[in-house]
Amino acid sequence: MGDEETSRVNIAAGIVTYNPDIEDIKASVPRLMRQVQCVVVVDNGSDNVAQIEAELAPYERVVLLKNAGNLGVAAALNRVFEWSRGHGYDWVLTLDDDSQIPEDMVEKYGSELRGRMDGRHPRVGIVCPLLKNRRDGTVFHSKRSRDECITSGSLTSVAGWEAVHGFDEWLFIDGVDFDFSRRLVAAGYELVECSDVVMPHQIGESRSIHVLGHHPIIWNHAAFRQYYIQRNNPYIDYKLGTYSYLGSLRRMLTDMLFVIVGERDRPAKIRAMLRGWKDGQRKIRAMRGAKVRG
């Protein structure tokens, strides 16, 4: 890999697949193999799993783990990390099945890590890239705040994953990354954004808009994704001690406004958002009840 730091640690890449475009797998795996020691693919019950298996078969350092069905992103990520820990890997580069990583990504991450191993910095839990929206070329942060970054393109410490007991599988898909990174920071780890790495990335049919010099993103998530977003956000805040009912309601209404202003399929999405938010509140009530009984 050409970097002193990355040569001293074992790095695996982890990809979660669910009905991926096989052409994306063909493009991403060879590039990954030039940068990491092993690629672990966890498939969540894809209809085209036989094609995935055939495409990966020639690679000796690629492991395919097949789930019987779609267990969600969090469960699949936990399986990646469990396998990596069991086989002696220190770091896992987590990627979407269509991720296009730069050729020198891991080398630059290694340089970032080496510069922070002087005893003056907190433990690094995640190194993450800048992202470039494939649709319009806008560059945006994968590290949204001090304690939140997205999973795709992140190099994550296996020790950190173990310290916070992994990804929360109840979340299934949305909020999995922010919940994990917030718990990681609370446990004393640091999130580091490597500005030397810019990775192309596309979330659904997202696009940037231009408002008074700012570039907010219209995500245009499908209705089922909107359900999980609104269900999971209040749950995450509650378990991490930052929840308020009014704040949760305001956040949901703000998200709804963006849907009304800039997205398609508004009625279905709004119904899904309301249903998700109500289910999130129901989960919080159940957690409160369990706490009282405990």
TrEMBL record:
MF GO annotations: glycosyltransferase activity
Assigned keywords, A-Z: Glycosyltransferase, Transferase
Lineage: superkingdom: Bacteria
Domain Glycosyltransferase 2-like: 15-108
Pathway named in the protein's UniProt entry: Cell wall biogenesis; cell wall polysaccharide biosynthesis
Entry keyword Glycosyltransferase: yes
InterPro entries: Glyco_trans_2-like (IPR001173), Nucleotide-diphossugar_trans (IPR029044)
PANTHER family documented for this protein: GALACTOFURANOSYLTRANSFERASE GLFT2, RHAMNOSYLTRANSFERASE WBBL
Family affiliation: Belongs to the glycosyltransferase 2 family.
Protein name: Glycosyltransferase, group 2 family protein
Source organism per UniProt: Bifidobacterium bombi DSM 19703
Lineage: Bacteria, Bacillati, Actinomycetota, Actinomycetes, Bifidobacteriales
